[in-house]
Design goal:
Helix content is about 80%, strand content about 0%. By secondary structure, the chain is mainly α. It has one domain. Helix 1 runs antiparallel to helix 10. The chain is globular, with a radius of gyration of 18 Å. The two termini are about 20 Å apart.
Length: about 290
C-alpha cells in the first residue's frame, strides 16, 4: 500500500508540475500561481464527496494549522514557479525537493520525534552533496534566462523549505480530520492566500493582475488535475506513515520531472547532474529501507 500511495503522489505532482510550469512560464508567475490554485478549488471538489458533513463542519477548529499551511503553500507555489521560469525543470525540481526533504526531516524530528538511524544521517549528508553538485553545474538553454542563476537557485531553496512547512501542517490536520477534508481545504486556503497576495501587490505596487481567457483557465485546470489524486494519496499516506519518511520518498519526483522536461522541452541536463540525481534517489530509497 505504501508504494502505491507514494507512486500516485509522485506521478501526480510531477505531471502537474511539468504541465503547469510550461503554462506559467508564459505569464506573470504570481498571477499564474493564483489561477492554478483557483482551478484546484473545482478540480479537488471530489475529495469532499469522500467525506461526511460532520467532519467537514469541524474544519473551522483547525484554522490555526491551516492558515499557516496556506501561507507557506502559497509562497512555496510562487517561489517554485518563479524559479522554474528561469531554471530547467529538472534542476529546479531537484533543488526544491532536496530542500523540502531536509526541512521535513528537521520538522519531523523536532515536533513528531521521528528519529532516524545513522544510515539516514549519512543519507542526509549525501543529499547535501547532491544539492551542491546540481546547483553548481552550469547548464544553458536558449528559452530560459541564464543570468542571475544564484537568485533562482535561492528561490528553489526557499520554495522547498516552505513546501516542507505546508505539508507538515497538512499531515497534522489529516491525522485528525482525515485526508479528504484536509487535502481539499488545504488547496482552497492556498488559493485564497494567493488571491490576497495578488491584490496586495496591486494595491501597494500597482502591479496589475494578468487577465486570461476562459480557454487559458481551462487549460490550467486540466494541467493541474493530477494534483487531485496526488494530494489524496499524500494525505492518506500521512495518516499511516511518518511524515519525514513520506517526504524523503517524494524525492523521486525529481526523476519524473527531469525525464518529462528532457522529452518535451529538450532540457537535457549535464551528465554530472544526472549522476547527482541518481545518487540522491538511491540514498532516499535507503532511508525508507533502514529508518
Amino acid at each position: 500500500m505504501f508504494w502505491i500511495l507514494i507512486g500516485i503522489t509522485i506521478l501526480g505532482f510531477a505531471i502537474q508540475a511539468v504541465l503547469t510550469s510550461h503554462i506559467v512560464r508564459q505569464m506573470d508567475t504570481l498571477s499564474g500561481s493564483m489561477y492554478r490554485s483557483i482551478s484546484l478549488i473545482f478540480v479537488m471538489l471530489p475529495l469532499l464527496f469522500l467525506s461526511d458533513l460532520e467532519t467537514i463542519s469541524q474544519i473551522g477548529s483547525y484554522q490555526k494549522k491551516l492558515i499557516p499551511a496556506a501561507i507557506a503553500g502559497a509562497l512555496a507555489t510562487w517561489f517554485s514557479y518563479s524559479a522554474v521560469k528561469k531554471l530547467p525543470m529538472g534542476i529546479s525540481a531537484s533543488l526544491k525537493t532536496i530542500t523540502s526533504v531536509l526541512g521535513a526531516l528537521m520538522l519531523g524530528w523536532i515536533f513528531f520525534q521521528e528519529y532516524f538511524t545513522l544510515y539516514a544521517i549519512v543519507s542526509i549528508i549525501i543529499m547535501l552533496i547532491g544539492w551542491v553538485i546540481i546547483s553548481n553545474t552550469k547548464t544553458r538553454f536558449e528559452h530560459l534566462d541564464n543570468d542571475n542563476l544564484l537568485l533562482w537557485i535561492l528561490y528553489s531553496f526557499i520554495a522547498g523549505f516552505l513546501w516542507a512547512v505546508t505539508v507538515f501542517f497538512l499531515v497534522q490536520v489529516s491525522r485528525d480530520l482525515g485526508p479528504y477534508v484536509a487535502g481539499y481545504f488545504w488547496e482552497v486556503e492556498i488559493a485564497i492566500a494567493l488571491i490576497l497576495m495578488v491584490l496586495l501587490r496591486k494595491i501597494f505596487f500597482n502591479w496589475k493582475i494578468e487577465k486570461i481567457s476562459k480557454k487559458q483557465f481551462r487549460n490550467i485546470a486540466i494541467a493541474a488535475a493530477p494534483t487531485l489524486p496526488a494530494t489524496w494519496a499524500m494525505a492518506v499516506a500521512g495518516t499511516m506513515w511518518p511524515f519525514a519518511t513520506i517526504s524523503v520518498m517524494l524525492t523521486f519526483i525529481i526523476v519524473v520531472i527531469t525525464i518529462l522536461g528532457t522529452i518535451f522541452f529538450k532540457e537535457k541536463l549535464d551528465k554530472l547532474q544526472y549522476i547527482g540525481i541518481i545518487v540522491i534517489c538511491i540514498w532516499a530509497l535507503g532511508v525508507r529501507m533502514f529508518s
